[in-house]
From TrEMBL:
Gene3D superfamilies in the record: Nucleotide-binding domain of ferredoxin-NADP reductase (FNR) module (3.40.50.80), Translation factors (2.40.30.10)
InterPro entries linked: FAD-bd_8, FAD-bd_FR_type, Fe3_Rdtase_TM_dom, FNR_nucleotide-bd, MRET, OxRdtase_FAD/NAD-bd, Riboflavin_synthase-like_b-brl
Membrane topology: Multi-pass membrane protein
Protein name (record): Ferric reductase
Length: 436
């Protein structure tokens, strides 16, 4: 089954689950004595709750779900659907809430359904605010991750309790059972991510075998599978890492794998010190235990056929690119590759020496672009642009596959520039980890 067909099926399933609770609710309900605004509000509430539950599925790291779209697109959709669900819920609350009771939730005459609704709404607002403005709130990634998981459970459980207690639409026992089963399914996804998957990872540990400093405040960790064969991966893919901590820890970090993927029992990951956990990587000891959830992602030339490949990297975005170049060299793949590597200065070019060695291959061309070039620099300067791409791409580049990894604004600019150069959007692939 092609990725396009699989993607269409997943989209259909998503839409079906999103509206199914509404269909279940209206079956056998007359709605007598309830006006349009009330019915409309109830509909928004049901769909909003379903969307909140589906958020678990979008980030449960199921490879079959992510394959047709890419993980970064799936996470972006998760964020957008979260906002859509929030709007639905807020409109539902604005229309239906008994405000005289909402303002005094602990009064004796305030029904439990109001308290549950208030708890769910407050938790949902806190979840969205902490995600959109995590950095402004100075929440570390680890603290946000734990808070996000707890708030998500509160939102679903409290909303379900509210729906069951309202009783207008869930008066029949079979409707209550369906809602409970659906909510349990959503929570089961969370249990799988937090308990089931860590249990599986616990049986497949890795050990830090070498810690290698690189240019550009980057450290490469070499990890060896401990008591199991490890895994193979396509060059350019990534994994979630729990290094020096339990596989049950709430926070795992996604990093691109920098080795070629040709050897299953050993992997390398190159991590730039940018804050939080990444600033501690250089101080890790050899022998540190690690757990890897992977491989994930569709950012790989193995998944897209083309007569040639263009790799555009900004800063540490070179990590998946070096994986691709290493794989091509080890396989003897002679398809042409043009790699444009952008950095602030020559001293900060991660993997500089290896890139220079790879550039001696007749099928590989490496172009460096520097913001602050050294004296006598004859190469490219400034940001990678459409004109720069045009200078270094051969005729027929429109049929190539293009891979871009770096800061968000840089990737946005590259997508626009490549489309302007006549490259079809389906041939442009990005890898984004700045999800929160």
């Amino acid at each position: 089954m092609s990725l396009v067909v699989r993607g269409a099926l997943w989209i259909g399933l998503f839409l079906g689950v999103a509206v199914a609770p509404l269909v279940f609710a209206v079956i056998g309900f007359s709605g007598l004595g309830r006006g349009f605004a009330t019915e409309f509000s109830a509909a928004l509430g049901f769909v909003g709750l379903a969307l909140m539950g589906l958020e678990f599925a979008l980030v449960a790291r199921f490879r079959a779900v992510a394959a047709p779209f890419g993980t970064d697109a799936l996470v972006q959709f998760h964020r957008e659907m979260g906002l859509v669900g929030l709007v639905f819920v807020l409109v539902h609350v604005a229309i239906s809430a008994p405000w005289d009771l909402v303002v005094r939730p602990f009064a004796e005459d305030t029904p439990a359904r109001v308290r549950w609704a208030l708890l769910s709404t407050i938790a949902l607002l806190a979840l969205v605010v902490s995600s959109l403005w995590r950095k402004r709130l100075r929440l570390s990634y680890e603290a946000w991750h734990a808070l996000h998981a707890v708030l998500a459970v509160v939102v679903i459980v409290a909303a379900l309790m509210h729906a069951l207690l309202v009783d207008h639409y869930l008066d029949a026992a079979w409707k209550r059972v369906l809602w409970i089963v659906m909510s349990a399914a959503f929570l089961t996804l969370l249990v799988w991510v937090r308990i089931g998957k860590p249990l599986a990872l616990r049986r497949r540990p890795w050990t830090v075998e070498r810690v290698t400093p690189e240019r550009g405040r980057t450290t490469t960790l070499t990890l060896r599978a401990d008591g199991h064969p490890g895994f193979r991966f396509a060059p350019g893919q990534y994994a979630w890492f729990a290094i020096g901590r339990s596989p049950f820890s709430l926070s795992k970090h996604p990093f691109s794998l920098s080795s070629s993927g040709e050897a299953a029992g050993v992997v390398e990951v190159s991590i730039k010190a940018l804050g939080d956990f990444t600033s501690t990587v250089a101080d890790l000891d050899v022998g540190t235990r690690a757990y890897l959830d992977g491989p994930h992602g569709v950012f790989s030339p193995d998944l897209y056929e083309g007569p040639g490949f263009c790799l555009v990297a900004g800063g540490v975005g070179v990590t998946p690119m070096i994986s691709i170049l290493r794989a091509f060299a080890e396989r003897g793949d002679r398809r042409p590759v043009v790699a444009l590597i952008a950095n602030r200065s020559w001293a900060e070019v991660t993997f500089r020496e290896e890139l220079e060695r790879l550039a001696f291959r007749p099928d590989v061309r490496v172009v460096h672009a520097l913001d602050e070039p050294p004296p006598g620099w004859a190469g490219e300067t400034g940001r990678v642009s459409g004109d720069m791409l045009r200078r270094h791409l051969p005729p027929g580049y429109e049929r190539w596959q293009f891979f871009v990894c770096g800061a968000g604004p840089m990737m946005d600019a590259m997508e626009d520039a490549l489309v302007a150069l006549g490259v079809a959007p389906g041939r442009i692939h990005t890898e984004r980890f700045n999800w929160v």
